[in-house]
């Protein structure tokens, strides 16, 4: 998929864009918008689309559009997880130092005399200090300033941050749009991607289906045995192996919790929800502290088995 900065063809989120345009046309544009939806559904792409609307950069040939694409537009600031230079991957959180430039950016006069736009991509990764710093800005926003927050987990944001934003919840993309955006992804993967192009590409990395099959065995009740260790080591070595396993296992546990709740089996619903939460914590700690992934996979298997 194309980088959100370079994407001009927005598919499947026309209703959310129209909501924003209508608010802008009314002269009552809210100062902060919370764009939510599953990972890979196009939240950042929409945020940059809205920024282009405000900054006169909708025409790809315009000077404003070229500056937005290049990351050099003086009235647009993007905040997201920084790369850990030592580990060569994204850090586990957005820190107060990452958010600090927002304050001075918003209180400077717009370089082109119009709006100033801040995109906070992945707002669920704001740590406590960063969240409080952003909250102060949301409480006293300067005029002609817009904050666009994206998140796959709105429940992880401070309630006070959510309450100060207007919500834009994105819906899954229709099959026709999915086939245009990710034409090379197999049909069975598309069926499991929940209308998210990014998720389809993510799932497609399990090329031989070994991780999905392994997760299905665990969810069916198979416990950790010695014959699983070679596969666990292989998954741990793959670039996205651990993330794929956690994603599929978490989805299965969440589905189990919902099914149990619908049929009134509250003990199973509560147990599965707890396992899902613990798996999420294990994943974040493993990524954040660069822990041994093979060991983390073994812990995930034991967690799902309740051992």
TrEMBL record:
GO terms for biological process: DNA-templated DNA replication. InterPro entries: DNA_Rep/Repair_Clamp_Loader, P-loop_NTPase. PANTHER family: DNA POLYMERASE III SUBUNIT DELTA (PTHR11669:SF8), REPLICATION FACTOR C / DNA POLYMERASE III GAMMA-TAU SUBUNIT (PTHR11669). One of its GO terms (cellular component) is DNA polymerase III complex. It comes from Gluconobacter cerinus. It comes from the Bacteria. Gene3D superfamilies: P-loop containing nucleotide triphosphate hydrolases. It holds the Pfam family DNA_pol3_delta2. This is DNA polymerase III subunit delta. NCBIfam families: PRK07471.1.
């Amino acid at each position: 998929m194309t980088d959100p900065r370079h994407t001009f063809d927005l598919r499947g989120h026309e209703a959310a864009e129209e909501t924003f345009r209508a608010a802008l046309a009314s002269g009552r544009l809210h100062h902060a918008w919370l764009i939510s939806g599953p990972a890979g559904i196009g939240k950042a792409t929409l945020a940059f689309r809205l920024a282009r609307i405000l900054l006169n950069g909708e025409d790809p040939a315009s000077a404003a559009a070229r500056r937005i694409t290049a990351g050099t537009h003086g009235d647009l600031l993007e905040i997201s997880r920084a790369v850990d230079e030592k580990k060569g991957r994204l850090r586990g959180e957005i820190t107060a130092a990452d958010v600090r430039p927002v304050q001075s950016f918003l209180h400077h006069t717009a370089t082109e005399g119009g709006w100033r736009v801040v995109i906070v991509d992945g707002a669920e990764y704001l740590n406590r200090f960063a969240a409080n710093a952003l909250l102060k800005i949301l409480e006293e926003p300067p005029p002609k300033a817009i904050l666009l927050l994206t998140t796959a987990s709105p429940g992880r944001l401070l309630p006070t941050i959510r309450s100060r934003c207007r919500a834009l919840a994105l819906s899954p993309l229709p099959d026709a749009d999915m086939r245009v955006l990710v034409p090379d992804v197999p049909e069975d993967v598309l069926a499991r991607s929940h209308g998210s192009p990014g998720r389809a590409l993510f799932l497609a990395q399990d090329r031989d289906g070994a991780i999905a099959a392994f997760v299905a065995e665990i969810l069916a009740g198979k416990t950790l045995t010695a014959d699983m260790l070679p596969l666990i080591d292989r998954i741990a070595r793959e670039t996205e192996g651990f993330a794929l396993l956690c994603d599929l296992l978490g989805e299965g546990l969440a589905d189990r919790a919902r099914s149990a709740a619908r049929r009134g089996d509250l003990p199973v619903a509560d147990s599965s929800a707890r396992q899902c939460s613990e798996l999420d914590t294990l994943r974040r700690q493993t990524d954040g502290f660069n822990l041994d992934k093979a060991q983390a996979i073994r812990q995930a298997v034991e967690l799902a088995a309740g051992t």
